[in-house]
């Protein structure tokens, strides 16, 4: 049996971030032993993915960042562009393989945190600690005992909610024959794509140089599409809207992110906590998760190093969650046109303020200044009916 003060389950963004922070104790903080359990290659291991976030100046993971942008652009459905400089913020692109290598390098130099490749089968927790039963790729059983467990694995089922939409996307990493991209500007939302009967759709473009970019097609709706539908939408976007000419697809990525006003439990047992998307880190209004993961794991690591109780804090404030619930209800009910809604916000609110708003860093008067740029009557009607709507479980994926 292995013993450690902390066991971290899952090596996605949250698990890797917490392991990285525990491998670097503060000068006056006590050392914490930890085991990071990552599933062997296969269906239980998270697929490769790209995380994007914004922060001011240099950050702890800049060595692993693929690209960063100070200028962002949004196109409304008519094609009218809105472009802004978000300095001192920068919009950063971090690929999961690069992040894992960055964390592995830190763990290799740490005597406190070790990584173990094993699939977790059961977790039994009580007030005194938890026992994790896992199995290696060759079938060997492994038992880990820890005082605290932080579980970042995806939930088997979403909690009951009043509104749940899915943000689902498919992306191509492309290399063009001609210089087709401006590497200084990222396309955050491009609503020139055809809009579905319900929900909204947009293109997303992150150029890494004049010839290379990640191009994605994204929808907010209730159900994912067949794979061929994403490829057809991307082909129309790259050919008819972006007019890229000849290009090669070098890699692809696919994802589904729940956008929900569900209440995520941060404690699964007296000594077992949930972090990351499983602990409510995904922002319901946008699907962004990485920045909230950093806030959560920073607070947990600081508590552990200070020998305090390490309950993860809420990833988003109550005010942010309430505003997101109203927006989701307004979109789901069809009271607001999603493409026009987001395009109007980016056109009327400085992008730096809007990004701070989406990160929950704005004050009440700034939130109100954003709110009055939305369709006020539909939003008020959605807010008024929310307390009367039942929370129901979502069936299916």
Automatic annotation (TrEMBL):
Coiled-coil ranges from the UniProt annotation: none
Annotated EC: 5.5.1.19
The protein, known as: Lycopene beta-cyclase
Entry keywords, A to Z: Isomerase
Keyword Isomerase: yes
InterPro entries linked: FAD/NAD-bd_sf
SUPFAM superfamilies to which the protein is assigned, alphabetical: FAD/NAD(P)-binding domain
Broadest EC class assigned to this enzyme: isomerase
One GO molecular-function entry: isomerase activity
């Amino acid at each position: 049996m292995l013993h450690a003060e902390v066991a971290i389950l899952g090596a996605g963004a949250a698990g890797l971030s917490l392991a990285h922070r525990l491998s670097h104790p503060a000068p006056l903080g006590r050392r914490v032993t930890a085991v990071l359990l990552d599933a062997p290659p296969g269906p239980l291991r998270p697929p490769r993915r790209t995380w994007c976030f914004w922060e001011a100046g240099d950050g702890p993971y800049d060595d692993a960042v693929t690209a960063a942008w100070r200028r962002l652009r949004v196109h409304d459905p008519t094609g009218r562009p809105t472009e802004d400089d978000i300095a001192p913020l920068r919009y950063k692109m971090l690929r999961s393989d690069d992040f894992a290598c960055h964390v592995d390098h830190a763990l290799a130099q740490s005597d406190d945190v070790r990584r173990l490749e094993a699939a977790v089968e059961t977790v039994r927790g009580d007030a005194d600690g938890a026992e994790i039963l896992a199995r290696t790729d060759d079938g060997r059983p492994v038992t880990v005992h820890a005082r605290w467990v932080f579980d970042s694995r995806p939930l088997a089922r979403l909690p009951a909610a009043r509104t749940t939409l899915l943000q689902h996307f498919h992306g191509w990493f492309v290399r063009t024959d001609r210089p087709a991209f401006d590497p200084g500007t990222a396309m955050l939302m491009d609503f020139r794509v055809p809009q579905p009967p319900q929900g909204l759709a947009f293109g997303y473009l992150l150029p890494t140089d004049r010839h290379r970019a990640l191009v994605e097609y994204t929808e907010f709706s209730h159900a994912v599409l067949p794979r061929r539908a994403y490829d057809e939408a991307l082909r129309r976007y790259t050919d008819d809207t972006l007019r890229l000419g000849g290009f090669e697809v070098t890699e692809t990525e696919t994802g589904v992110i729940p956008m929900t006003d569900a209440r995520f439990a941060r404690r699964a047992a007296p000594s077992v906590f949930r972090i990351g998307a499983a602990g409510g880190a995904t922002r319901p209004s946008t699907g962004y998760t990485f920045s909230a993961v950093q806030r959560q794991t920073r607070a947990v690591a600081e508590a552990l190093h200070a020998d305090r109780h390490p309950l993860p804090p809420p990833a988003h404030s109550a005010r942010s969650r309430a505003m997101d619930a109203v927006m989701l209800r307004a979109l789901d009910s069809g009271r607001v046109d999603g493409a026009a809604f987001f395009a109007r916000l980016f056109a009327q609110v400085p992008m730096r303020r809007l990004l701070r708003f989406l990160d929950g860093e704005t004050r009440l008067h700034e939130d109100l200044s954003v709110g009055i740029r939305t369709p006020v009557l539909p939003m008020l009607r959605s807010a008024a009916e929310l307390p009367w709507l039942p929370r129901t479980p979502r069936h299916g994926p």
